[in-house]
Design a protein that fits this description.
eight-stranded mixed β-sheet, alpha/beta, single chain, 8 helices
């Protein structure tokens, strides 16, 4: 689908839907939906914007929950970013639905990347509650196979993947809906590693060994502690955002990272990008076939 056709589909189906649909979503159509987080304010669930990318399917299909990084989910037009659209198309081509979840807009934030860790209002706690709420929401949707769900997150969203599948969090241990697979691209692993990590599902970590924003070493250590449920694939010379297509650049506006105050490097790595997508699809195919 071309970008213009995609935009047309978005606006044709741009109805805010709460709760379960009365009928399955139309294949090939992108629907804007509202999804309840498990976080509550004044006794009401925080409602999050989501974008549901429906795959062609004659029966309930597997679904992957997409979790954006610190830069947020939306581009300057208020639509899902190129990375989100690319991965949704990749998943749809396999016959799987995708739900992209926006954890920032409902909380009055546009991005977190330039905010120091410790000052952010949206943390792993809020994002974990978002994931758990979204999994319950997905399980109630017609056209979604509730027994075949997966998580896919990048950076801050990758950290959310880990938090939402760590049994040591009481809300995770009590969750009634669990994914078959959790996949995290270059997550920050320190928080859950310090807490202790007991994976509630098979977990795949995709890392860049030259990442100076969310370094690979803590994730490799977390994987050793979580074996055999946690698998790592890592690429030499790959920095943060290696699955993108933009050239590597220095971001001086990021206060966090391996060298706080000195910025970080972000950009694509063709080999890591291509191989990580193959690894991702193979892992999902294996998980959904069980």
């Amino acid at each position: 689908m071309t970008f213009l056709r995609w935009v047309s589909a978005v606006f044709i189906s741009n109805l805010l839907l709460v709760g379960a649909w009365s009928q399955p979503a139309q294949p090939g159509v992108v629907s804007r939906v509202q999804v309840p987080s498990q976080e509550a304010r004044a006794g009401q669930a925080v409602m999050l914007d989501g974008w549901f990318f429906a795959a062609p399917a004659d029966q309930p299909a597997p679904t992957v929950l997409l979790l954006h990084g610190c830069g947020g989910m939306l581009n300057g037009r208020g639509l899902p970013s190129q990375r989100i659209r690319d991965y949704a198309a990749l998943l749809n081509a396999q016959g799987w639905h995708a739900l992209a979840l926006d954890s920032l807009s409902a909380r009055g934030e546009k991005e977190l990347c330039t905010q120091r860790i410790g000052t952010r209002r949206v943390t792993n706690t809020e994002r974990r509650q978002d994931v758990l709420g979204a999994l319950q929401w997905l399980a109630a949707q017609p056209g979604v196979d509730a027994s075949r769900l997966a998580l896919l997150g990048w950076s801050h969203g990758g950290s959310a993947v880990l938090s939402a599948t760590n049994r040591l969090h009481p809300d995770v241990a009590a969750a009634s809906v669990r994914p078959r697979l959790a996949v995290a691209f270059y997550p920050g692993c320190d928080t859950d590693r310090r807490r202790g990590f007991q994976p509630a599902t098979d977990t795949l970590l995709l890392l860049g060994l030259a990442d100076d924003w969310t370094p690979a070493a803590p994730c490799q250590a977390l994987a050793r502690e979580g074996r055999p449920a946690v698998t790592v694939r890592a690429w030499e010379g790959a920095v943060h955002g290696f699955d993108g297509t933009a050239p590597v650049r220095h971001r001086a506006d990021v206060p966090n990272g391996v060298n706080p105050g000195q910025g970080v490097h972000v950009g694509g790595h063709p080999q890591a990008r291509d191989e990580s997508r193959q690894v991702l699809l193979q892992a999902l195919q294996h998980a959904f076939a069980r």
